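QUALITY CONTROL LOG
STEP: pairwise intake check
CHECKER ROLE: data steward
CRITERIA: each record must contain a sequence immediately followed by its structure tokens, with no blank fields

ENTRY 1 OF 2
RESULT FIELD BELOW
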Amino acid sequence: MNTSCEDLLSDSIFNYNDELKLTTSNEEVVLDERKPNENVTFKWTTGTNKGTGAAISYVLQIDKEGNDFATPLEYEMGKNVFSYSLNWATLNSILINTFGVQAGTTQIMEARIIATVSSPNVEKQISKIAFTITTYVPVSSQLYMVGSATSVGWNVSDALSMTLSTTKPGTFIYQGPLSSGSFKLPVSRDGCWCQDFYTKSSTDANIMVHNIGGSGQDLQWQITQAGQYKVTADLLNLTITIESIVGSSFSQIWIVGDASPSGWDIDNPKAFTQSQTNPFIFTYEANFTQGDFKILAGAKGNWCGEWYRPLTNGQSLSSTDVEQNSGCGTDNKWTIGSADVGRYKITLNTQNNTISIKKVELYIIGDGGPNGWNIGSPSAMTYSNGSFVYTGALNSGEFKIAKFKGDWCDGDWINAATANQNITDGNYIITHGCDGPDNKWKLQSGDAGNYEISINLDNGTMTIVHQ
């Protein structure tokens, strides 16, 4: 019975007797924004517990040389951890934003590992090293297009926004119409022409020059023939590609018909949404009733104008066939029958003249729901009068709602507005694929029971009522 706390923390199996020593994988490193996932790794030996068997915990600290670790960046490593890595993107951000190092300069840094033994009879141990890091100047997180070849002309305050690639860091894309003229690429919509621009190299039209503060030669890229173009600007490698795209030049598309929310109002129909990355892709999602519809492509108000219509009247909704035509001669339409009433997402590709008309279903996914984490073949909620409804048991656990089935990143999600959201709170957000945030509703142990969940996607409301 004569047992102390110190004895409880001791285990002769863990008798460490090594000098504590910290090392780094890179004593001198020049960070490169093109390699964000390269690492600087810190490793350390165990140190000693002087044969007490007591546990050793570690703290890693990083600071600028000369600060004497007065206000270091600190990482609690815990026990039995002997290495830690920081990628180059994180290190660059830390040096610039935490330690105030000027971007593009070299700074001597210091790191130390502190080993604390749980036995009061063993002193704290410290090992310190110095290393050198050269930071980079991060490229802009925004990029725009301005010039006589664009729809905004030389109005930099209204410059066209380019889309940041989700797969290639530092790469921006514009896809859309360009007319005969020239353009260059500002980093903001600041009205001052003294801002940073990316302009054409004097020796190679595929190479960009970063003109800081508007300095340097003001060389622009030339568009000689109006049309649809894809412009890809890689700020990290200072390259640009300009590709001409053959296809339809429609910039607005509308739904028309008594099956749709537009009815037969050709003057004020509901609009499709044009993709920001591919101007030939248009999407429309809404609740459809029994009736007919077709797709208006030209000017509103003209029944004999430009249309996208099925190849045959009443063509199957599963068919991908569509033709673009004008006039009032052949007026084929898609038909929503009584059994087809529901919510649909229509995707029209005006470049290759294909269409996808898919019925939208909602599925509860999670251990708090009726299907568990079964994304492959979950049970659909019931569609009724513009709303999706589930009535039944919910379990202790979490759930979110998918607008698809198959694989985790295949479509859109209805997520709770906040993490671990209360089951009575119907606020939600829409997320895409695996982009997140992956918030879920959470039922505590006392929340399980029968519920009615009702979601109206048109007005953005969701109610969850205990039965």
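ENTRY 2 OF 2
RESULT FIELD BELOW
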Amino acid sequence: MRIFETIKPGHPFLQQYISYYYLDIADDEDYCNEYICYPHYNNTISLYKSHTTSLQNNHSIVSFEKDAAPLQIFTPLRENILKVTQRGPVFKVGIVFEPFGINQFLRKKIPLNERACSPAFHFFDEGFVRNLFNGYQFTAMANLLDVQLLKLFTPMENPYLTKAIEIFSSTTDEVGIDELAEVKLGISRKHLNRLFKRYIGVTAQKYRSIVRFRQLINCKLHQNEPQNLTALSHQVHYTDQSHFIKACKQLTGLTPSQFFKDGEMIGSEDTFWSFAR
């Protein structure tokens, strides 16, 4: 049995901060899966029922162990590709946060540009994770996550960061970093970058490049009528098609044609991974 499902948080309040949950299950004892996650402005908490992990450079290796404790992994915003290897049966739930969203739930400050895992990292109490995996009815699991996340919620506001993220997310206007900081927000570029590094994990410029990249991917994958890359590039404020080709190579190591050929949409949200064949 192989299951991959996505679902939105049921509580409307949480949808401000969490994009979606996903369930990833494979119960074959000999299961082995390897995939590439591409750069993205989200960050995630991955919960595994009974696994161990090795976090290598841009590579996470997760192995099933029957008597192992639940595993919790934090994956920050990705400015490079990340390879994930799963060995043995998989029982996983992922929580995909909106930008700045995870900051509303952290009980203690962690570096937001580094992967982390239990036992050093705990987002939830271990007892809650064990209880979460007592059943595999996804709606019920999502409801449990909703309740627990509402308990963890601690408001953190930063109007400068919120406004900057909103502007970067817009495809109607293109704003330079200096103009954004000094004109739109009334702060220095240095201050803006300090906020992004602290709460997002990268500079404002890097964040914008990843957002633009993901916007074009979403336009390409969800377009109602086929458009060429030139039209799509202009739509999300690349100078031209060659500009996007260069950005795609920098972020993924692939040309756009290779990227879209190798990648695969799974679930009903924006999960776009490349699987080893």
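INTAKE CHECK: passed for both entries
DESCRIPTIVE NOTE, ENTRY 2: The mean pLDDT is 93.
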